[in-house]
């Protein structure tokens, strides 16, 4: 018997869009390197190896994000305790939109979604650095 999915990805994303702030890629490119901004890449490591990354971005795999943000988690990463504006991105902005919603609910602020993700970043002429396979 097939599953009866009652809330699909489109509804989840529409709800998240109503709750979170997003930043356009051109505006994100303009703040790259500012000390009060942290760009968080939640893509899979294989995506980063294949496509490259935003210089200076911090990689936090989507599957560990909540645990890395929570200061009470044994997996907490100190970057998430810093007073910065967090710009979350994935490849196209879908995963990061939902992740931004969760991080906002957790109390991380300010936190914004990079609208259009890494694809929009590249289209806006943002710098990309190659990443060597591990």
TrEMBL record:
InterPro entries: Rhodanese-like_dom (IPR001763), Rhodanese-like_dom_sf (IPR036873)
CDD domains, alphabetized: Polysulfide_ST
Domain named Rhodanese: residues: 33-130
SMART domains: RHOD (SM00450)
Protein name: Rhodanese-like domain-containing protein
One Pfam family this sequence matches: Rhodanese
Gene3D superfamilies attached to this UniProt entry: Rhodanese-like domain
Origin species: Aestuariivirga litoralis
GO molecular function terms noted in the UniProt entry: thiosulfate-cyanide sulfurtransferase activity
Top-level lineage group: Bacteria
């Amino acid at each position: 018997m097939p599953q009866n999915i009652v809330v699909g990805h489109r509804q989840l994303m529409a709800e998240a869009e109503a709750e979170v702030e997003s930043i356009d890629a051109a505006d994100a490119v303009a703040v790259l390197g500012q000390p009060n901004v942290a760009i968080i890449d939640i893509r899979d490591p294989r995506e980063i190896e294949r496509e490259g990354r935003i210089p200076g971005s911090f990689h936090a795999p989507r599957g560990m994000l909540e645990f890395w943000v929570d200061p009470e988690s044994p997996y907490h990463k100190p970057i998430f305790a810093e007073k910065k504006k967090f710009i979350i991105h994935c490849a196209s902005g879908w995963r990061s939109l939902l992740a931004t919603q969760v991080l906002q609910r957790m109390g991380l602020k300010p936190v914004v979604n990079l609208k259009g993700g890494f694809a929009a970043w590249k289209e806006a002429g943002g710098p990309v650095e190659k990443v060597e396979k591990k």
